[in-house]
Structures are given as C-alpha cells and as structure tokens.
Amino acid sequence: MEGSSVQIILMVIMLICSAYFSATETAFSSLNKTRVKTLADKGNKRAAHVLALSDKYDKLLSTILIGNNIVNIVLSSVCTVFFINLLSGNQSTGTVVATIVSTVVVLTFGEITPKTVAKESPERFAMFSAPIISALMKILSPVSILFSGLKAVINRIFGKGDDKRMTQDELLTLVEEVEHEGGIDKQESELLRSAIEFNDREASDILTPRTQLEAVDEKMSNEEISKLFADTGYSRIPVYSGDIDSIIGIIHQKDFYSKIAGTGKSIRSIMKKPVYIPLSMKISDILRLLQKTKSHLAIVVDEYGGMMGIVTMEDILEELVGEIWDEHDEVIEDIVQIEENSYKVLCSADLEKMFRYFDIEDETDAATVGGWVLEKFGCFPQPGEAFEFENLAVEVISADDQRVNEIKVTVREKVEDDQQENEA
Q1: Is residue 301 within 8 Å of 308, Cβ to Cβ?
Q2: Domain ranges within the chain, ordered by starting residue
Q3: Most exposed: 32, 93, 195, 245, by fewest CB within 10 Å?
Q4: What would the pLDDT profile of 163-180 be if each residue is shown by its tens digit?
Q5: Is 205-321's fold the same as 335-423's?
Q6: Using CA atoms, how far apart are residues 214 and 229, in angstroms rounded to an integer?
Q7: What's the CATH class of domain 335-423?
Q8: Whole-prediction pTM value?
Q9: Which helix (H) or strand (E) holds 417?
Q10: 205-321: CATH superfamily
Q11: Are 308 and 209 in contact (CB under 8 A)?
C-alpha cells in the first residue's frame, strides 16, 4: 500500500512537470517580444531574463523537449507498474489500462490545459517560468549541446532555412493587427503604413505634371512675374528659357520682392540652380537630395531630358502625414460624394488612394486615376462614355483632347462568390 502511495505521488509530480514544460513551450513561442522588451526597458528584471532566454530559443526548446520527454516516460513507466500491481500482476491488461489512462491524463492535464492557460498570458507565465527553465538549461546543457550539434549537421546537409527577417507585407499586417487590438488609433496606423511604404514610392507617383505647372519665362517683365506670384500664392516658381522643357532656375518670392521688384533688374541675379531628378527616383532619395542641396523643389525629367513636372518638399511630406493645407490653399477634395452611392473623382488624384477608398485592386502601371481611365479605354474618351470594373460603374464627366479631368463612380453592391457560382 505504501508503494502504491509513492507511485501515485510520483505520477502527480511527473504530471505537474509535464504541464510545466508544455506551458513554458507555449509561453515562449507565443509571447510578444516588443511587450517584453518594453517591460525590460522599464527595469523589470524578469522580463530582461525572458528576453535573454528568447534569444537562445533553440537551446531553450531543446531543454523543454528533453525534460518533457523524460517526465512523460517516467510517468508512463510508473503508471504501468501501478496498474499491473493494482490488477494483481496481470501484465497485458495492466499495460493496456495504463496506456489508456496515462494518454488521456497527459493530453488533458499535461498538454492541452496548460498550453491553453499559457496562451492566454504568455508574457506573465514566461516571467514566472524563466528562473526554473534557466536552471534546467544549465543542468541539461550537455544533452542540449549534443542536439544542437545534430541540428547544425542537418542544416549543413539540407541547407539554410528561409530568411526569417520580417518582410514589408508582414510588417503592414502587424500594424493592422495592433490597430485592430486597440494599441494604436487609425491616424497612427496610417502614419506607420505611410512610413513603411515610403521607400516604394517614386517621383512619378507624386509629381505635379507640367500641364498643371506654373512657370516664368525669363523674358517676362517684373510686373508679370509679380502678378503670377500674387495669383498662384506659390513661394517658389521655376524659370524657363524659350520653352518649359528648358528650366534654367528657381526664383523665391521673398528674394523677388526684396531684391528685384520695382528695380528693373534681371531675375537671373536671384535664380537658384535647379535640381533635376529622373522619373523613377525613389522619394526617400529625393528627400535626402533636397536636404543635401538645401532645395525645396526638384525638376522631374524623362529619359530624353524632357520636363515631366516638379516634386516639392511638401509633396514628399504629404506622403507621410497626408494633405498639408495652408491658409492660401484652395481646399480641393479628390473624392466627393454627390449621391448615396455615387462619387465625383478628380482624375489627377492618386490611384492608390481611390483603390483604398473603394476597396478594390487592379494590376496597373498608372499612378493617377486619369492614367487608369485612359488605360481602360485605350484612347481619349468623351464625356458620357463609361465602363465597369468589379462593383464600380465609371463614367467620364469631363474630358478634352489631352486628358480626362473628372469621372463619376457609382458603387454597386458586391455579389458574393458563392452566389455568382450558383447563378452560373
């Protein structure tokens, strides 16, 4: 009877150990490293210990698996002896009963339940478990080293694993998850997404096209230039010689009124050297170039040297923080609702902005709504012409021989895929 009591106590201890190893494995594989690092930076020693152990995850996992297997084997062996003795030495029946009982008990109380509990608060359990598992790692280090060496041999045979660095898409998904969990608000989420996608944007995505550009002919009188500054409200205007493809400089409003206006002097004396950039230049590189040259405006040229438009410092910053309006700007909305399911969209608007607004996707090389519309028609459409894309009906409102100006987008209810298949 005394032997049976010892066996029961030993089985209970082994079951607790099994539960501990299972919960520890789940806790360290599920914990939020950023959250733990934040706690560690605030002086939490347990969190710092957990962070250190996480950096040795392979050794940690080897220790957990070795320990878990040892206690499960001991539990199974003791359980078998216990039931054989309980059934008066009947080995076959005792072994079967022991196998069934130990399997159910280990699965319920040694695997599923502790892993579920640890999953709910992995950081807290990891901090509780850290001192114990750290000591076990030292005790089982000879065996762990053996398995680590075996793993290194296997990796050498089969090659290195995939790159574990976080991709941009994974980072964007992480931002969405944090926003969904309430860690950040929508505005902060949009700012983070803009920063992550910043390096993907090119000059062609944000430039002000030459058709919308205001520029000064070097032969213009000071009165004409003064009127242009007053009418546009711009602080800087490019200067061209002969035609707009030949930009020779940039003049600043402050320099013009303080040094040139009313004097009859040539604007060449206040012109700043223009900064030229290719159409495909990344906006992160443009920003660094403008900072280096102490400029606020760059001239975008194509492969043939033709002027395509301009990119300003404000255009680049707007890619990060959204539209920036000052007291002189006329506020123009790219997308305006005109009816319950109908919207007026400016064709100069950013195409990705419209896609996000209407929750659609399309593979296209176009950067603006106008470019996308021309791509769909394959020619310059006339007002009233229309096409359909996904659940959108797109109608041209305003256009001329050179460009499409405005479109009307009518949103229709999306038909579910299953319903479409049934109708087919």
Answers
A1: yes
A2: 2-158, 168-200, 205-321, 335-423
A3: 32
A4: 556 677 777 777 777 777
A5: no
A6: 10
A7: alpha beta
A8: 0.53
A9: helix 417-423
A10: CBS-domain (3.10.580.10)
A11: yes
